Amino acid sequence: MNLDSKIPEGPIADKWDNHRFSSKLVNPANKRKYKIIVVGSGLAGGSAAATLGELGYNVDCFCYQDSPRRAHSIAAQGGINAAKNYQNDGDSVHRLFYDTVKGGDFRSREANVYRLAQVSTNIIDQCVAQGVPFAREYGGLLANRSFGGAQVSRTFYARGQTGQQLLLGAYSALSRQISSGQVKMHTREEMLDIVVVDGHAKGIISRNLTTGETNAWTADAVLLCTGGYGNVYYLSTNAIGCNVTATFRAYRRGAGFANPCFTQIHPTCIPVAGDHQSKLTLMSESLRNDGRVWVPKKAEDASKHPNDIPESDRDYYLERKYPSFGNLAPRDISSRSAKEACDEGRGVGPGGRGVYLDFSDSITRLGESAIRERYGNLFQMYERITGENAYQRPMRIYPAIHYTMGGLWVDYNLMTTIPGCFALGEANFSDHGANRLGASALMQGLSDGYFVIPYTIGDYLAKAGAGAISPDSAEVKEVMESVRERVDQLISSKGKRSSRSYHKELGQIMWEYAGMARNEKGLNKAIGQIQDLRDDFNKNLLVPGSGDNLNAELERAGRVRDFLDFGELLCRDALERNESCGGHFREEHQTEDGEALRDDENFAHAAVWEYDSDDKIPSRHQEKLTYDNVKLAVRSYK
Amino acid sequence: MKLFLKVWRQSDRNDEGRFETHTLDEVSEDSSFLEMMDQLNEQLLEEGTEPVVFDHDCREGICGMCSLTINGHPHGTENSTTTCQLHMRKFEDGDTITIEPFRARAFPVVKDLVVDRSAFDSITQAGGFITVRTGSAPDGNALPVPKNDSDRAMDAAACIGCGACVASCKNASAMLFTSAKAGHLNMLPQGQAEKDKRVLAMVSAMDEAGFGNCRNFGECSAACPKDISLDYIAKLNRDHIKAKIKSVFA
User: Fold this and answer.
1) Distance from C-alpha of A592 to C-alpha of A458, rounded to nearest angstrom
2) Which of A101, A327, A443, A573 is 20 to 30 A away from residue B65, measured at CA?
3) Do B190 and A128 touch (CB under 8 A)?
């Protein structure tokens, strides 16, 4: 597998400039001869489709929802980072670059991260011009706040709905292109495979979710902007429809999949209430500024009403273990500590999987109205879901899968190992290493879509030349036939178990053995259990109805089928990465105090998986990561 | 808890449709309304019946995809709540719950409880944007925006495009939706250049899509899960009259 990262020559600050100059351009009059397929309409896909359409390319954009405005980028709450230094507090492109590389625990590619920091400032300008209503100060200028992992205030936000407002900005730009005819939008149309001809991506096969028709689309390039794979855990903060199918199908057709074991767990989610649970809801991390995290010291107190447990019987474990960061310890560390407390039987709430986040001290100190003003909407959301009043009794929180740093391997041009197939946003692996900092996901999605791909795709297209193949060609028909077979096989599954029940069971295996803490024995066990589950799925799956109309069970069955394969790949990657770093914690590799222990000598690389066949274990390749501008160091939060 | 569900079933746009009654036992009061629907569907699967199709995605009240009319009210009777945020503890053991799609001429039923809301997209495509070429924007702080204007624009921009406003309106008018988007952009200095054109285009796209006229009853705002204010409708009416007059004398 060719893993040439194509990092441009020159000092890091000049690489992007040099690259833009040395890249080939497509003449404005020639752009209309090219067709581009964009799969996904979130921040990455929406912004890419809009921008490429505006440049004059013919774009077909696909989403499985009923409108491009529904993509799950919309649910991001906190904000978007940019090295604007509007606060005059010492921020710079280099500092944002440094923070992101360090926050990623030295497993991201320096050149990509530097470019991300460089274009971050353009994103804010672009969004303001589109009318995104960012928070402002009384003087009318843009407001900022600070976020985890940074010592400067560089986060721009729109109340608690930053993702929504940025997505609506991209959606408005996309709508403008749709009305001009430059972008054709295909809603409720799910990509099920990619067409590769002579080694180049030339199209996709999709299923119209309303009519059940299988359709072929051809183009000069295919952009996968299909988000992350957090739903392999069944319960996550992802939307119900989020899935790995697009990227996984590309992987099966030759695209390398990088670092699938890098998953991010968010410490402040509302815990699971029972068996009925279908998703988890995130609550802003800002709550940890005024809430104190604790569990009872004794396991037998766990079932008591929290207000009946005296101060002396409470264990404020984050304050005890990390005195200098206390309740504001980073995401991975807070999450793991919560799991430890619950594993010791000291967890609270249903199933003993929860810890308290207590605001009583802050309420005594600042008054209830001050807390209401800061977090009123979050307390309301908590009450809506749990029926409990957090002003009167502590909240219960527990970590949940939130984001996935792994994804399709891409070079500096965002191209996968299949020429002509690009991956943008959460779907690729490039910028966050082993751990993503808060407010950086939105930045990356828009950076890739608005400011990177419009340049890098031109270089590929100019060299490849225009010439989409016919949807009737033999190569396309062959892939189409294999998709039809797959769908037919699912629809003729008339066993006993619903795809949901398989998904749930897969999620339990993943969470137990490949969740917050992993070890060799557990991962091996998980691989065996997933294989058994997959065999059972192939025999006993029940899909009702037919394939010629809206059939949500059929849609889910296809997605779960791919998750069953992908879950195994994730475990394999976690098994081979014999070190702890960022969100990947291997119990065998920790310091005496239980902190993550990186192994830079052997694992300062991206692990890239190459598919061979269903009977063979995929092969693992490496892209060596070098750090010339940020010195490798140990993260410490004591 | 035990529930009796009257659920709308319709195989496609042309089917007449009918209610089906199901009894559901052991519903947890901690489950959300959509998790109760999941439970119903698992039960239907076991019974060998085809499950009920409904739209949903984020399940945290922001994507705007969920769309049920519950006991006659879009998203149910709770204020400021989408269907996915509604929890079963708001119902009583033994309740009969009627579940229908969002009903409006411009939102044809696709199947069961799923409707086609693409008419909203066409309104946005007509003018719900500010024309700004990627890369040509001035510095974000080049144009100060009074905090108050920005906050009011944000109030309008909070619309999730779910269509509850249309479903609750006797005339199935889309004025609240249209006015929220137009209001968001028209209140900002960045949106002034295209203001008149935007208003005329969006209103005519709204009319063409088959939505009814606004009679100012205010049912839309009461049903809106994001509490979009009727003031935006008043503003859209004003902006529309101004744009119309200008176009006559232009």
Assistant:
1) 51
2) A443
3) yes
Whether chain B has a CB inside 8 Å of the CB on A128: the answer is yes
pLDDT at res. A78: 83
DSSP A449: I
The backbone torsions φ and ψ at residue B21, rounded to the nearest 5 degrees and listed phi first, read -110, 135
Q: Which domains does chain A have, with CATH numbers?
A: 35-264+403-464 (3.50.50.60), 267-401 (3.90.700.10), 475-624 (1.20.58.100)
Residue A299 has what DSSP assignment?
A: G
Please identify which residue in the block is written with the tokens 């990623």. Answer: A104
> Would you call B63 and A451 a contact, using CB atoms and an 8 Å cutoff?
no
Q: Where are the alpha helices (DSSP H) in A26-108?
A: 28-31, 43-55, 93-103
pLDDT, tens digit, 9 for 90 and up, residues B5-14: 999 999 999 9
Cβ contact A622:A607 at 8 Å: yes
Task: Check whether A236 has a pLDDT greater than 80.
Answer: yes
C-alpha A98/C-alpha A100 separation (Å) is: 5
For chain B, which domains are there? 3-111 (3.10.20.30), 117-249 (1.10.1060.10)
Q: What is the ipTM of this complex?
A: 0.98
Minimum distance, in Å, between the CA of residue A496 and any CA atom of chain B: 8
- Any chain B CB within 8 A of the CB of A272? no
A179 contacts B28? CB cut-off 8 A: no
Chains A–B, number of C-beta pairs less than 8 Å apart: 216
Q: Given CB atoms, is B45 within the 8 Å cutoff of chain A?
A: yes
Among B63, B125, B190, the residue with its CB nearest the CB of A74 is B63
* Partner residue facing B45 (CB), from A134, A140, A544: A544
Q: Which of A136, A164, A171 sits opposite B62 (nearest CB)?
A: A164
How crowded is the C-beta side of A345, counted as CA atoms within 13 Å?
A: 4
Tell me, what's the pLDDT at A637? 65
Helix (H, G, I), strand (E, B) or coil at A317: helix
**What is the side-by-side order of every strand in the sheet holding A200-208?**
A189-197, A200-208, A214-218
| B218/chain A closest Cα distance in angstroms | 25
Whether A19 has its CB under 8 Å from any CB of chain B: the answer is no
Q: Report the residue of chain B nearest A176, measured CA to CA.
A: B125
What are the Cα distances from residue A140, in Å, to A121, B145, B148, B189?
19, 4, 9, 11
User: Does B234 contact A at CB distance below 8 Å?
Assistant: no
Mean local confidence (pLDDT), A427-447: 95
Cβ of residue A141 closer than 8 Å to a chain B Cβ: yes
A86 touches chain B (CB under 8 A): yes
Between chains, do A185 and B121 touch, taking CB under 8 Å as contact?
yes
Report, as residue numbers or ranges, the catalytic residues of A: 331
Write the DSSP string, B166-212: HHH-TT-B-HHHHHHHHHHHHTSGGGSTTHHHHHHHHHHHHHHTT-B
Beta pairing class for A214-218 and A200-208? antiparallel
Residue A18 vs residue A147, higher pLDDT: A18
Chain A residues with CB inside 8 Å of B63's CB?
65, 70-72, 74-75, 239
